[in-house]
Specification:
Helix 5 packs antiparallel against helix 6, helix 5 (100-136) runs parallel beside helix 9 and helix 6 (156-181) runs antiparallel to helix 9. Helices cover 64% and strands 4% of the residues. It starts with a helix and ends with a helix. It has 488 residues and is mainly alpha-helical. Strand 1 and strand 2 form a beta hairpin. It is elongated, with a radius of gyration of 31 Å. It is built from 18 helices and four strands. The strands form two sheets. It has a two-stranded antiparallel ribbon. Strands 3-4 form a two-stranded antiparallel sheet.
Length: 488
């Protein structure tokens, strides 16, 4: 066991200090120490009187640390001398059967699960805002784009529900990661447990873990890596799609009259020289901060890459800090809450282009059994004809439509003018969809209800897991207080 003098030297010059802090690491070390002495007392590994004295010492150190500058390091070798100073050298038996290896893994998992619950809650809040906006725009027709070019019309609700589904998957990934993260490595020591019969399940229960990472070598040298990467991968995906939202809206600012923009003044900025400018600062920040978040997640992968088992590179006590993801999700919530859609301008943009021509080929097939490729070729020719003359689709004279079709198909155009005008309308195309997952009102209503149910279930899950951790902490505090009281 390392002596107090050496520990003080270690504390003054620990080059690894940045790895042994962050998040709530110091608080979690205190909880681990409480759980350890409770278990050591219950199993008889530490004699009752000594266990009570150690517990009292742990409580004294916690109280005395409140009057000092906040501890940045949760390194046990920095902590132990303070415990020995108040409880005597025998207090080092608190570390019986433990190593900084399993302490590091346990603290890291406690930080990870804390971040996961906060990130899941932030995702659900973002989904709630997005779904509320979708509810208000069930019938708002907008242009949708592929290859950066207007492709087909849809509704704004349909578009938003796509991102709602993506956010639900992000939450699902984080929930799945939580199930793997919330397993305890405590009691595995360095890599092969110890000769002391520690009650690992009791330690896990006192700290709110759902079970164990059983294999001691895995617990300290393999599971930390894949658990951290699990979380980082899910958050990297979320960062990517936050950037997509920012880019989609930002693209409209190139237009003199965007159909979608940010309405809240606090989300935009002005120019120091051009008084007309209203720069979409929140969108630029969302994109930039999401990129920073993505970079941080890639760093987690790089730190674990090409590293032998047992090395320090993947031993950070806060391996995937939650501050940046929470900042990005908070900004995303602000952006969603600040969106303003000009319905008339959106519909006018659809009508100004040729994005409903797909429906011409479909209607010719459905109404007159014209082979799709013939109808498709005709619609393409019609597009070239209109664009070359500066005409929108609805401005092309019907006589020219019929003439072009007759010349191409060698037969009369099978639709009358009223049918043709209906077929090329955005309303006909959007609200007449029949496939599962389309923008038609019934499907939008169904998907909206489904996403609302999923969001409610995810919020309930966050509360359930938070309550479970709080309950475990209450059990721990009660057992620890009873033990410490025996020393009085």
């Amino acid at each position: 066991m390392t002596g107090p003098t050496k520990s003080r030297v270690h504390a003054a010059g620990d080059v690894n200090q940045t790895f042994r802090g962050g998040g709530r690491s110091v608080e979690f070390l205190d909880r681990i120490n409480k759980a350890s002495i409770v278990m050591l007392d219950e199993t008889g590994i530490v004699p009752p009187a000594l266990a009570a004295r150690i517990a009292q010492g742990i409580a004294q150190v916690i109280v005395s640390d409140r009057d000092l500058p906040p501890q940045r390091s949760a390194d046990y070798l920095d902590y132990e001398p303070r415990l020995i100073a108040v409880a005597g050298p025998e207090a080092s038996r608190l570390h019986t059967g433990r190593s900084r290896q399993d302490l590091a893994g346990t603290i890291a998992r406690m930080n990870l699960r804390d971040g996961l619950l906060r990130e899941c809650e932030a995702l659900v809040t973002a989904r709630d805002r997005l779904l509320l906006l979708a509810e208000r725009h069930r019938d708002t027709i907008i242009p949708a784009y592929t290859h950066g070019v207007q492709a087909q019309p849809t509704t704004f609700a349909h578009y938003l529900l796509a991102f709602g589904a993506a956010l639900a998957r992000h939450t699902e990934r984080l929930r799945q990661a939580y199930a793997r993260v919330n397993r305890s490595p405590l009691g595995t020591a360095a890599l092969a447990t110890s000769s002391f019969p520690l009650d690992r399940p009791r330690l896990a229960a006192l700290l709110g873990f759902d079970g164990l990472v059983e294999n001691a070598y895995d617990a300290n040298h393999l599971a930390p890596v894949d658990s951290f990467l699990d979380v980082a991968s899910a958050l990297a995906t979320a960062a990517e799609q936050n950037g997509q939202v920012a880019q989609d809206i930002h693209a409209q600012y190139a237009e003199p009259t965007p159909w979608i923009m940010l309405g809240a003044p606090e989300l935009t900025g002005t120019s120091s020289i051009m008084p007309q400018k209203r720069n979409p600062a929140a969108l630029e920040q969302l994109r930039a901060q999401a990129s920073i978040m993505l970079g941080q997640m890639q760093t987690v992968f790089l730190m674990a890459h090409n590293v032998r088992t047992g090395m320090f590179d993947y031993r950070s006590y806060d391996p995937v800090p939650c501050a940046q993801p929470l900042q990005v999700l908070a900004l995303f919530q602000q952006v969603i809450g600040g969106i303003v859609v000009n319905k008339e301008r959106a519909l006018a943009e659809v009508r100004a282009d040729y994005s409903t021509t797909t429906e011409i080929a479909d209607a010719l097939l459905q109404k007159a059994e014209v082979p799709f490729r013939i109808g498709h070729h005709f619609a393409s020719q019609l597009t070239d004809y209109g664009r070359s003359r500066g005409l929108a689709l609805h401005e092309i004279p019907f006589a020219e439509v019929a003439r072009l079709y007759s010349a191409e198909a060698q037969q009369a155009f099978p639709l009358d003018e009223e049918e043709f005008r209906e077929v090329i309308s955005a309303e006909y195309m959007v609200f007449g969809r029949r496939g599962i997952g389309g923008p038609q009102p019934a499907e939008v209503a169904r998907m909206l209800a489904d996403e609302l149910d999923k969001a409610a279930a995810d919020r309930a899950w966050v509360k359930e897991r938070s309550d479970a951790l709080a309950a475990a902490d209450a059990v721990l505090e009660s057992a620890f207080a009873a033990l410490a009281a025996r020393a009085a």
